[in-house]
Write a structure and sequence with these properties.
Elements: H1 3-8, E1 16-22, H2 26-39, E2 41-42, E3 60-66, E4 83-90, H3 91-101, E5 106-114, E6 118-126
Length: 136
């Protein structure tokens, strides 16, 4: 973020959030990053599809998202299973990112860790359930 952008958001000096997605299929990670890219600016290009890394352990995909400007509201995205996402950034920025995910997924906060100027939030994202219509 440059000084002009910071000056336009003086009460929110950092609008960047580090996002970590782990323990899920590559298609689910791609769905999360696609929703984020629709709602905000991201360091991941549209054709940057997460790839599984060989070897022991869990693959963790990361992205840095700038929430200083809202894009369009993302459409609901389908996930094959619940996805765990960790967010780290300033209080305002993390709250903005959480709000940006709600149109695309069912968002559950699993835990938070608060610091002096930043917080870390762990979320579980799931496919939004469609409301049941009566008489159908």
């Amino acid at each position: 973020m440059n000084s002009v952008e910071q000056a336009s958001h003086p009460e929110h000096p950092s609008a960047e959030v580090v996002v970590e997605v782990e323990g899920c299929r590559t298609a689910d990670a791609h769905a999360v990053f696609s929703a984020l890219r629709t709602a905000f600016r991201s360091d991941r290009a549209p054709d940057d599809v997460p790839q599984e890394m060989a070897g022991p352990g869990t693959t963790v995909w990361t992205s840095t998202v700038d929430v200083s400007e809202r894009g369009t509201e993302p459409e609901p995205r389908r996930l094959t299973a619940p996805v765990t996402v960790s967010l780290q950034g300033g209080y305002w920025a993390v709250d903005q990112l959480c709000a940006g995910l709600r149109p695309a997924f069912a968002v559950t906060v699993l835990g938070t860790a608060a610091g002096d100027q930043e917080k870390e939030v762990e979320l579980r994202l799931e496919t939004l359930r469609r409301p049941v219509t009566r008489g159908a």
